[in-house]
Design a protein that fits this description.
Elements: E1 5-9, E2 20-26, E3 33-34, H1 42-45, E4 61-66, E5 69-75, H2 83-96, E6 102-105, H3 112-124, E7 144-148, H4 155-176, H5 184-194, E8 200-205, H6 207-212, H7 216-222, E9 230-236, E10 244-255, H8 264-267, H9 275-290, E11 295-305, E12 316-319, E13 325-328, H10 335-348, E14 353-358, H11 363-368, E15 373-377, H12 381-392, E16 396-398, E17 416-417, H13 427-436, E18 452-456, E19 462-463, E20 474-475, H14 480-492
Parallel strand pairs: 1-7, 2-5, 2-6, 6-7, 10-11, 10-14, 13-17, 14-18, 15-16
Antiparallel strand pairs: 2-3, 4-5, 8-9, 9-11, 12-13, 15-18, 19-20
Length: 496
């Protein structure tokens, strides 16, 4: 777990700071040049960045000796022009100098938001998953970072970053853990143990309780495994809450595809398919730790999707808690089946907003690449998620929900089918449309659908390429910050 003490020092206390000094260089037409007040210091005027062959490109770094000691230089490209730039530069600093027990950063920053984003970037990349390595070289030694700035930073703002980092790291640990050790009951146990906090109540539903509550979707997906499914309900209810947010997360601890077995290349990495459940659970815990004035109810819909003699078959029909029937034509489109139970349960509480989060479709990467999360939902909810993601510095892209694609889900024997096998048209959008059918109405009199948004982060949840910005390799902890920022927005917004 990341544990760095961040200190803020004004420009008059530079001589008292410890460790390597990190400065910034900006790319220029002729050669990189140092930026900020430090560039005027006699010791630093002697630095020849051209001789160091340092380009100043964004996120590049180097180290050199000066009369003032060893200094590190980080490239900023065209400069730091936004919190997003500052966060990415912070990530580059955190990676480049993580072998230093302590270092000081003296980089020109223009606002509170940029200072905090820089600190976030440094903090977010201090993560390594080494649980299963019998021997490893731990490159992370950093325990103290001093940031030179005359901008006032409050203690509660640093606490927020600490809570976010710990929530992201906890999520990464869960998502990185292989399926032989992280099965449904274990995931439920680990999350429940973390949720022992003021104003928080946790319920874990086993197979018997799931059957009693008519959660037949989770049961159908999990019945092929010898390790039974679970639903975890986390309720955070502070006394001053005026708004209610419901979160629903997909928690497939391993996804073989079931009877519709995945190919050998597609089955690798399916331990990540519980990232949605881990994220909504850890986000709710973070919201509770921050004491935000909003009620949050999270539903973690957890199962292991395995092929066996007891597994659900293609063409089986499942009747859900709300009476809707679904013909399961593709057992590898199981995420929407478990989420349907969670959406029904969340709808019964009549919250102000429901957000579901899932590694739902491979089509998300085809449409959006490796870094964006697909966002779908109604006109009231999408802007709230876009605003929260922008504040958090996470990438979402609004995708449509074309009504005509619902035709693809018509079944001859049930209300709907879960997938039109062989037709890949708008696959990510079809997943969103399916989920929307399980969002309830505002009341028995007002049949308007409850406010709802769907986040498909099938690729953003895991980075199998090189680290970049403030994003690590492997499980990323994506969307924790967005969900916390959303709760902050809703908690301070007057209820209509």
């Amino acid at each position: 777990m990341t544990s760095i003490t961040f200190k803020i020092a004004n420009s008059g206390t530079k001589s008292k700071t410890a460790g390597l000094l990190v400065l910034a260089a900006q790319k220029d037409d002729k050669a990189a040049k140092l930026i900020g007040d430090q560039s005027k210091h006699p010791a630093f005027k002697q630095l020849d960045l051209k001789a160091l062959n340092f380009s100043g490109n964004a996120e590049t770094s180097t180290r050199t000796n000066s009369s003032a000691g060893v200094i590190g230089i980080i490239g900023t490209g065209s400069g730091i022009k936004s919190p997003a730039d500052a966060r990415n530069i912070g990530g580059a600093i955190g990676r480049a100098f993580k072998d230093q027990k302590a270092f000081t950063v003296d980089i020109p920053l223009a606002s509170v938001e940029e200072v905090l984003a820089l600190i976030e970037g440094i903090s977010f990349v201090q993560y390594e998953f080494t649980k299963y390595k019998s021997s490893f070289s731990n490159t992370i030694q950093t325990s103290e970072v001093t940031v030179i700035t005359d901008i006032k930073i409050q203690a509660n703002e640093l606490k927020r970053i600490k809570v976010l980092t710990e929530a992201m790291d906890a999520t990464r640990d869960l998502v990185n853990t292989p399926g032989n050790d992280l099965f449904p009951a274990k995931l439920a146990e680990l999350v429940a143990a973390q949720a022992k906090l003021p104003n928080v109540k946790v319920e874990v539903w086993d197979e018997r309780r799931l059957a009693k509550e008519k959660c037949h979707g989770i049961l159908a997906v999990g019945q092929g495994s010898v390790r039974g499914p679970r639903l975890v309900k986390i309720s955070y209810s502070p006394p001053n809450a005026k708004t209610h947010l419901a979160l629903v997360g997909k928690g497939i601890t391993f996804d073989t595809g079931g009877i519709s077995l995945k190919p050998k290349t597609g089955i690798l990495g399916m331990k990540y398919d519980m990232a949605g459940a881990a994220t909504v659970g850890e986000a709710t815990i973070a919201i509770a730790r921050l004491g935000l004035p909003i009620k949050v109810t999270a539903f973690l819909c957890i199962a292991e999707n395995m092929p066996s003699g007891s597994a659900t078959r293609p063409n089986d029909v499942v009747t859900f808690r709300n009476g809707k029937t679904i013909e399961i034509t593709n057992t590898d489109a199981e995420g929407r089946i478990v989420l349907a139970d969670g959406l029904i349960l969340a709808s019964e509480l009549k919250p102000d907003l429901i957000v579901d989060l899932a590694t739902l479709t491979g089509a998300a990467s085809i449409a959006l690449g490796n870094r964006y999360t697909g966002l779908m939902g109604d006109d009231d909810s999408v802007p709230a998620l876009q605003s929260a993601a922008a504040k958090a510095g996470e990438l979402v892209w609004h995708m449509p929900l074309p009504e005509e694609l619902l035709e693809l889900l018509k079944s001859d024997v049930a209300d709907m089918m879960n997938s039109r096998v062989g037709n890949t048209s708008g696959s990510m959008l079809v997943g969103g449309l399916f989920l929307r059918e399980f969002v309830g109405s505002k009341s028995s009199k007002d049949k308007t659908r409850l406010n709802w948004a769907h986040l498909d982060f099938a690729t953003a949840a895991n980075n199998d390429l090189a680290p970049y910005g403030s994003t690590v390799k492997g499980a990323t902890g994506s969307m924790i910050r967005t969900l916390v920022a959303l709760a902050e927005q809703l908690g301070t917004k007057p209820k209509k």
